Amino acid sequence: MPYSELLVRPMREELTSAGVQELRTTEEVDAFMNEKDGTAMLVVNSVCGCAAGMARPGIRLALQGDRRPDRVATVFAGQDLEATARARSYFADIPPSSPSIAFLKDGELVYFMPRHRIEGRDAQSVARDLTQVFAEHCAVPAG
Amino acid sequence: MGTFHQGKGELHGITVIVDTTGPEIFVGRCDDMDERGIVLHDVDVHRDGDHGRSKEDYVRRASQFGVWKKHDRLFVPGDRIASVRKLGEV
């Protein structure tokens, strides 16, 4: 059963205030996933402690770097059920995990950070891993 | 830094690999662990050699993408446990 929207709103805003697009319907998920060009990151947000203490702050830190994905979006597991199910359907071979982070290049999954790579760490470690992925796959910003 | 709840051990909330002295190996989120055994949530189990995969093959795949749960909750007795490791550290 979803939590109160009042409780969850700050968890949504922690990402949206960093420029992450929130996908709340299946149509929004399809539109995001069907755009294949360039780099994209999809975050499965959640109410759990490792999303609060590690994933969301780690993502915010990583997005402050010079290189970042062309597009970044999020769905909220346990809250936006249909949107989350649709997002997971694009990665049908990967067990559901929240929080988790998928990174795509030209529509292909090139990196996946499941929950067990987030829990038990700190935000800086999560940010460091994401920054390495951005460095490998994202274009250098025009100077 | 784990997900801390009162009275739970340091592995509480962490996804662990529980290898046994037998053919089974388990992956699940630790609820609590003491000398009696370990309680896991959202647990997958693999038997050495199933689907042509050794325990090591299974762990390698699990460490990349996670596991599909077969049990909501499961207890592994202490006398069957050979080792407990964090999946995130494999």
Helix content of chain B: 10-25%
CATH class of chain B, anyone?
A: Mainly Beta
- CATH level-4 homologous superfamily of chain A: Glutaredoxin
Would you report the number of β strands of chain B? Answer: 5
Report the average pLDDT across residues of chain A: 95
Provide key terms for this protein:
heterodimer; A: 143 residues; alpha/beta; Glutaredoxin; B: 90 residues; SH3 type barrels; 5-stranded antiparallel β-sheet; 12% helix; globular
Summarize the structure in words.
With 143 residues, chain A is an alpha/beta fold. Chain A has a single domain, classed as Glutaredoxin. Chain A is 41% helix and 19% strand. Chain A has helices at residues 5-16, 26-34, 49-62, 81-89, 123-137; strands spanning 21-22, 39-45, 71-76, 100-105, 108-113. A five-stranded mixed β-sheet of chain A has the order 1-3-2-4-5, with helices on both faces. In chain A, α2 runs parallel beside α4 (81-89). The model of chain A has no long low-confidence stretch (mean pLDDT 95). Chain B is mostly beta strands and 90 residues long. Chain B has one helix and five strands, in the order βββαββ. Chain B has one helix at residues 55-65, and strands spanning 15-20, 24-34, 37-47, 71-77, 81-86. Chain B is globular, with a radius of gyration of 12 Å. Chain B starts with 14 loop residues before the first strand and ends with a strand. The chains are: A alpha/beta (143), B mainly beta (90). The A-B interface holds A 48-50, 53-54, 93-95, 97, 100, 112, 114-122 and B 1-4, 13-15, 63-69, 86-88.
Please sum up the structure shown.
Chain A is of the alpha/beta class and 143 residues long. Chain A has five helices and five strands. In chain A, helix 3 links the parallel strand 2 and strand 3.
Topology:
The complex is a heterodimer of chains A (143) and B (90).
Chain A (H helix, E strand, L loop, with lengths): L4 H12 L4 E2 L3 H9 L4 E7 L3 H14 L8 E6 L4 H9 L10 E6 L2 E6 L9 H15 L6
Parallel strand pairs in A: 1-3, 2-3
Antiparallel strand pairs in A: 2-4, 4-5
Helix pairs in contact in A: 2-4, 3-5
Chain B lengths: L14 E6 L3 E11 L2 E11 L7 H11 L5 E7 L3 E6 L4
Antiparallel strand pairs in B: 1-2, 1-5, 2-3, 3-4
